[in-house]
Write a structure and sequence with these properties.
Blueprint (H helix, E strand, L loop, with lengths): L21 H9 L5 E3 L13 H14 L12 E3 L7 H10 L4 H7 L17 H12 L7 H20 L6 H16 L2
Parallel strand pairs: 1-2
Helix pairs in contact: 3-5, 5-6, 5-7, 6-7
Length: 188
Protein backbone atom coordinates (compact mmCIF):
# COMPACT_ATOMS: atom_id res chain seq x y z
CA UNK A 1 0.00 0.00 0.00
CA UNK A 2 3.02 2.30 0.09
CA UNK A 3 4.43 4.19 -2.87
CA UNK A 4 7.74 5.92 -2.35
CA UNK A 5 8.22 9.00 -4.50
CA UNK A 6 11.67 10.43 -5.04
CA UNK A 7 11.03 14.14 -5.08
CA UNK A 8 14.39 15.91 -4.99
CA UNK A 9 13.82 19.42 -3.71
CA UNK A 10 17.43 19.90 -2.59
CA UNK A 11 18.18 22.33 -5.39
CA UNK A 12 15.66 24.72 -3.83
CA UNK A 13 17.10 24.45 -0.31
CA UNK A 14 18.37 27.71 1.15
CA UNK A 15 21.47 28.03 3.32
CA UNK A 16 19.30 27.88 6.46
CA UNK A 17 17.90 24.48 5.32
CA UNK A 18 14.47 25.87 4.47
CA UNK A 19 12.87 24.71 1.21
CA UNK A 20 10.23 27.32 0.41
CA UNK A 21 6.85 25.81 -0.49
CA UNK A 22 8.05 22.30 0.39
CA UNK A 23 4.73 21.18 1.82
CA UNK A 24 2.85 22.58 -1.16
CA UNK A 25 4.94 20.28 -3.38
CA UNK A 26 4.09 17.37 -1.08
CA UNK A 27 0.33 17.95 -1.03
CA UNK A 28 0.22 18.45 -4.79
CA UNK A 29 2.06 15.16 -5.31
CA UNK A 30 -0.12 13.40 -2.73
CA UNK A 31 -3.25 14.46 -4.63
CA UNK A 32 -2.27 11.98 -7.35
CA UNK A 33 -2.83 9.17 -4.83
CA UNK A 34 -5.93 10.15 -2.90
CA UNK A 35 -8.47 12.75 -1.88
CA UNK A 36 -7.60 12.84 1.83
CA UNK A 37 -4.10 14.10 2.54
CA UNK A 38 -2.53 14.16 5.99
CA UNK A 39 0.26 16.68 6.56
CA UNK A 40 2.36 15.66 9.57
CA UNK A 41 2.64 19.12 11.16
CA UNK A 42 2.88 19.18 14.96
CA UNK A 43 2.46 21.71 17.74
CA UNK A 44 5.36 24.11 17.61
CA UNK A 45 5.74 23.94 13.83
CA UNK A 46 5.54 27.62 13.07
CA UNK A 47 5.95 27.97 9.33
CA UNK A 48 2.91 28.91 7.28
CA UNK A 49 2.90 25.75 5.15
CA UNK A 50 2.33 23.67 8.28
CA UNK A 51 -0.65 25.68 9.51
CA UNK A 52 -4.38 24.98 9.61
CA UNK A 53 -4.90 27.92 7.25
CA UNK A 54 -2.45 26.40 4.75
CA UNK A 55 -4.31 23.08 4.91
CA UNK A 56 -7.61 24.86 4.23
CA UNK A 57 -6.19 26.90 1.35
CA UNK A 58 -4.42 23.89 -0.18
CA UNK A 59 -7.68 21.91 0.06
CA UNK A 60 -9.51 24.72 -1.72
CA UNK A 61 -6.88 25.16 -4.43
CA UNK A 62 -6.56 21.45 -5.19
CA UNK A 63 -10.34 20.95 -5.16
CA UNK A 64 -10.67 23.89 -7.54
CA UNK A 65 -8.05 22.45 -9.89
CA UNK A 66 -9.70 19.01 -9.78
CA UNK A 67 -13.15 20.39 -10.65
CA UNK A 68 -14.85 18.62 -13.56
CA UNK A 69 -13.07 19.40 -16.82
CA UNK A 70 -11.84 17.49 -19.86
CA UNK A 71 -9.24 15.51 -17.89
CA UNK A 72 -11.14 14.81 -14.66
CA UNK A 73 -14.69 14.11 -13.59
CA UNK A 74 -14.04 16.12 -10.46
CA UNK A 75 -12.63 15.44 -7.02
CA UNK A 76 -12.83 17.08 -3.62
CA UNK A 77 -9.39 17.17 -1.99
CA UNK A 78 -9.04 17.52 1.78
CA UNK A 79 -5.69 18.39 3.36
CA UNK A 80 -5.62 17.92 7.12
CA UNK A 81 -3.20 18.61 9.94
CA UNK A 82 -4.58 16.20 12.57
CA UNK A 83 -1.46 16.32 14.78
CA UNK A 84 -1.18 20.12 14.94
CA UNK A 85 -2.29 20.31 18.58
CA UNK A 86 0.16 17.63 19.75
CA UNK A 87 3.85 17.95 20.50
CA UNK A 88 6.24 15.27 19.30
CA UNK A 89 6.54 14.08 22.92
CA UNK A 90 2.75 13.71 23.19
CA UNK A 91 2.57 11.80 19.91
CA UNK A 92 5.39 9.49 20.98
CA UNK A 93 3.62 8.85 24.30
CA UNK A 94 0.42 7.97 22.45
CA UNK A 95 2.37 5.57 20.22
CA UNK A 96 3.96 3.92 23.26
CA UNK A 97 0.62 3.76 25.13
CA UNK A 98 -0.85 1.92 22.15
CA UNK A 99 1.86 -0.74 22.29
CA UNK A 100 4.59 0.84 20.19
CA UNK A 101 8.22 0.04 20.86
CA UNK A 102 10.55 2.82 22.06
CA UNK A 103 13.69 1.40 20.41
CA UNK A 104 11.92 0.90 17.09
CA UNK A 105 10.51 4.42 17.20
CA UNK A 106 13.93 5.86 17.97
CA UNK A 107 15.72 3.84 15.31
CA UNK A 108 13.13 4.38 12.56
CA UNK A 109 12.50 8.10 13.05
CA UNK A 110 14.86 10.56 11.43
CA UNK A 111 14.91 14.29 10.91
CA UNK A 112 18.28 15.97 10.80
CA UNK A 113 19.65 18.98 8.97
CA UNK A 114 23.28 17.83 9.01
CA UNK A 115 23.62 14.02 9.03
CA UNK A 116 27.16 12.67 9.20
CA UNK A 117 28.88 10.79 6.35
CA UNK A 118 27.20 7.53 7.47
CA UNK A 119 23.75 9.19 7.46
CA UNK A 120 23.42 9.35 11.26
CA UNK A 121 21.86 12.28 13.12
CA UNK A 122 24.17 15.14 14.06
CA UNK A 123 22.39 15.87 17.38
CA UNK A 124 23.31 19.57 17.04
CA UNK A 125 20.39 20.87 14.95
CA UNK A 126 16.78 21.84 15.68
CA UNK A 127 15.16 18.64 14.33
CA UNK A 128 17.57 16.47 16.33
CA UNK A 129 16.84 18.49 19.46
CA UNK A 130 13.06 18.17 18.94
CA UNK A 131 13.43 14.40 18.53
CA UNK A 132 15.63 14.16 21.65
CA UNK A 133 13.13 16.17 23.72
CA UNK A 134 10.29 13.83 22.71
CA UNK A 135 12.27 10.72 23.60
CA UNK A 136 13.78 12.08 26.83
CA UNK A 137 10.34 13.06 28.12
CA UNK A 138 9.13 9.54 27.45
CA UNK A 139 11.95 7.91 29.40
CA UNK A 140 14.45 7.12 26.67
CA UNK A 141 18.04 6.79 27.83
CA UNK A 142 20.61 7.88 25.28
CA UNK A 143 23.54 5.49 25.05
CA UNK A 144 25.69 8.01 23.22
CA UNK A 145 26.94 10.77 25.54
CA UNK A 146 28.06 12.83 22.53
CA UNK A 147 24.47 12.91 21.26
CA UNK A 148 23.25 14.19 24.62
CA UNK A 149 26.05 16.76 24.72
CA UNK A 150 25.06 17.99 21.26
CA UNK A 151 21.40 18.33 22.21
CA UNK A 152 22.29 19.95 25.55
CA UNK A 153 24.47 22.49 23.73
CA UNK A 154 21.73 23.26 21.19
CA UNK A 155 19.10 23.75 23.90
CA UNK A 156 21.46 25.86 26.02
CA UNK A 157 21.74 28.15 23.00
CA UNK A 158 17.98 28.64 22.70
CA UNK A 159 17.17 28.85 26.42
CA UNK A 160 17.59 32.65 26.51
CA UNK A 161 14.97 32.97 23.75
CA UNK A 162 12.59 30.62 25.56
CA UNK A 163 13.06 32.47 28.84
CA UNK A 164 12.53 35.88 27.22
CA UNK A 165 9.41 34.68 25.37
CA UNK A 166 10.88 35.20 21.89
CA UNK A 167 11.48 31.59 20.80
CA UNK A 168 8.01 31.24 19.31
CA UNK A 169 7.26 27.52 19.50
CA UNK A 170 4.45 27.94 21.99
CA UNK A 171 4.32 27.38 25.74
CA UNK A 172 3.64 23.65 25.60
CA UNK A 173 6.69 22.81 23.48
CA UNK A 174 8.89 25.34 25.25
CA UNK A 175 7.99 23.83 28.64
CA UNK A 176 8.92 20.41 27.26
CA UNK A 177 12.27 21.71 26.05
CA UNK A 178 13.04 23.06 29.53
CA UNK A 179 12.01 19.76 31.17
CA UNK A 180 14.19 17.78 28.76
CA UNK A 181 17.11 20.10 29.46
CA UNK A 182 16.64 19.50 33.20
CA UNK A 183 16.65 15.74 32.57
CA UNK A 184 19.91 16.06 30.63
CA UNK A 185 21.46 18.20 33.33
CA UNK A 186 20.52 15.50 35.86
CA UNK A 187 22.25 12.87 33.72
CA UNK A 188 25.62 14.68 33.66
Amino acid sequence: DITIEHLDLNRFERADKIIPLRNLFFVMLASYYGDKICLGATYGDRVLDKSVIFAQKASGLLSYLYRPQHWTEGRRISVGVPFKNFTKAELLKQYLDEGGDMETAFRESFSCYEPDAQGRECWHCKPCARKAVAFLLNGYHFEDPAALDGVRSYIAGILPEIQSGTYGRGPKEEDEIIKAYQIMEGQK
